[in-house]
Amino acid sequence: MNLEDITTVKSILSQPQKIVIIPHKNPDGDAIGSCLALRGFLMAKGFKAAIISPNDFPKFLKWMPGCGAILNYEKENAQSKKLLEEATVVFTLDFNHLSRTGQLETPLTEKEADFIMIDHHQQPADYAKVTYSDVSMSSTCEMVYNFIEFLGDVDLITKDIATNLYTGIMTDTGSFKYRSTSSRTHRVVAHLIDCGAQNMEIHQQVFDANSPSRLHLLGVALSNMIILPEYKTAYITLSQQELDDNNFKKGDTEGFVNYGLTLEGIIFAVIFIENREEGIIKISFRSIGDFSVNQFARTHFNGGGHDNAAGGRSELDMEKTIEKFNEVLKTYKSDLNA
Ligand code: 5GP
Ligand code: MN
């Protein structure tokens, strides 16, 4: 954030405001962590702030401090609409385009208020009064930490705020191992531990809370994995039937896509997950090194994200989607073998 933006934010927050905070649809640890931390911070500054999520969030995050206050726009629609109508300031966190908010896209596009974007995805849209966008950042949570620091308020970071920020940084960096993890990230995380974040407990809450059905679903996913050594690619499919058979709950497939990358020589991993209710195949892409899955998802599967982690969707059925993927893959053979 530049000085001008910091001054603008300070001026906005020097007056009474009604604030809502919005994460992207299907929010992950970074989206939920950043929203909860920002809300905690704004409440410590004396503001009323609400979080409105476009839809539900995964069970493995439902222990996070303050998460009971998150409104689900699908389920608590009337209350959410009212808060959004009354809002004078709207923070949008962990996404770069209003289309990432699903059903909230139209009301947000029409909404007149001071928008503040905090995000680390590529190609941010230009809808906010203040756009704090930095693609080099490990996570939106690291940026919320910076945001608090820019305002000179690091002293206001409580144990709960620290826990939420730690969780988002941990999940978005794959436990501090992805390329965007910097020495600064570690310094921030160290300070969060000093502020009371219980690092071991947080890891356990997020990663050691498997249900037997989730592990069975992982077994199905791994046995469905197709490995294409000539493209250094591995992909997984999961049909709606396979999800249903294994008592699928939101968040259960989190991390499955990464298994492909643990294979020696594989640099591109994909998972295709059928969602019959939405009539789509939801796709996650991951890569190691210079192969940009953001570009791949954007160009072919109506998506985007980061260079090494992106998502997208297909409106074809599973078989046709896989056919299309295999066709497209052929045109990337030299890029994948560079
Ligand atoms: P995931 O595969 O874990 O859902 O998402 C990986 C990254 O890609 C995240 O940063 C996420 O925000 C982004 N992403 C996931 N799905 C989509 C999508 O449909 N469109 C865009 N633009 N980004 C996505
Ligand atoms: Mn993120």
From TrEMBL:
Span of domain DHHA1: 245-330
MF annotations from Gene Ontology: nucleic acid binding
Stretches assigned to the DDH domain: 18-169
Domain of life: Bacteria
Organism: Flagellimonas flava
UniProt protein name: Phosphoesterase RecJ domain-containing protein
